[in-house]
Amino acid sequence: MGLDLPSGGHLTHGYYTSGGKKISATSIYFESLPYKVSQETGFIDYDKLEEKALDFRPKLIICGGSAYPRDWDYARFRSIADKCGAMLLCDMAHISGLVAAQEAGNPFDYCDLVTTTSHKSLRGPRAGMIIYRKGPKPPKKGQPEGALYDYEDRVNFSVFPSLQGGPHNHQIAALAVALKQVMTPGFKAYAKQVKANAVAVGNYLMNKGYKLVTSGTENHLVLWDLRPIGLTGNKVEKVCDLCNITINKNAVYGDSSALSPGGVRIGTPAMTSRGLKEADFEQIGEFLHQSINITLSIQKEYGKLLKDFNKGLAGNKDMENLKAEVEKFSAKFDMLGFDVATMKYQ
């Protein structure tokens, strides 16, 4: 069981469409059942999750997602997993940097396995980690005395030789560097600022009258529901992309199609790493507001069909002006890793 994709879950957590089409290998090769957020609040409905789990009796429950802006109740997940006899896995790929800096809930106290990529809020190379329990299990009724966790051999064999080829030593070295950076006070400050910046841009958009899923955020992202203003995520993503603003179209709960989703996801780690603070993200919020007005204007003139909408993108003066503003603003903040003044090729 994993969080449903339109509820903020990840494609790899057993997703299949409302029509039953199996999209991910985890739904093709395994029997899966999603749990969902409340249609009213956007928060995970833990009571319905427990009810489903006790009926479905999954072997594995996954907590973690790719577009859920709130923290996770790991203790409740552990209680539900124990009641239905399931293993509990946390996929903390998107929030692992916050977890490492103790700016998000700690899944390690409750989960049997924890997985993460290392190139998102953790700011490392494109790689991943699998972390598992080992040693003696806590005493439990009906369990043999001195029972040990057996994840180590199973995980290692599943990775190699079952699924993976030889190790990529450059990624291992880069991951070691990233984890060393995580131990510095600067990384803690970065993680705190990531959350503060997400709150800042989220509040700015809400003050403009826009709807955010769960009406805010507790982590590094905001999920913006565009349906109340009659727009889709793919149109707004396209306009923003042409104005040098990187966001991504994203499903929101209640969506029926992932190809034409009702929202966009906005993340703060990358620009936080370039030194932006709350006031800067309010300016980003203003750029996003301008992009919405442009999108609405194009849709009004050219129509809602994407093929018609795209006709209004070429040579759009408002988009050209916004792009210039964005470039002027972003040029004030250095890119990490090199000094422009010393570059050989300008």
From TrEMBL:
It catalyses: (6R)-5,10-methylene-5,6,7,8-tetrahydrofolate + glycine + H2O = (6S)-5,6,7,8-tetrahydrofolate + L-serine. Pathway: One-carbon metabolism; tetrahydrofolate interconversion. GO terms for biological process: glycine biosynthetic process from serine; tetrahydrofolate interconversion. GO terms for cellular component: mitochondrion. The keyword Transferase applies. It is an enzyme of class 2 (transferase). The modification N6-(pyridoxal phosphate)lysine is found at residue 120. The lineage of its organism: Eukaryota, Viridiplantae, Streptophyta, Embryophyta, Tracheophyta. One of its GO terms (molecular function) is glycine hydroxymethyltransferase activity. This is Serine hydroxymethyltransferase. Its cofactor is pyridoxal 5'-phosphate. Keywords: One-carbon metabolism, Pyridoxal phosphate, Transferase. Belongs to the SHMT family. PANTHER family: SERINE HYDROXYMETHYLTRANSFERASE, SERINE HYDROXYMETHYLTRANSFERASE 1. It comes from the Eukaryota. Residues 1-287 form the Serine hydroxymethyltransferase-like domain. Interconversion of serine and glycine. Pfam families: SHMT. Its EC number is 2.1.2.1.
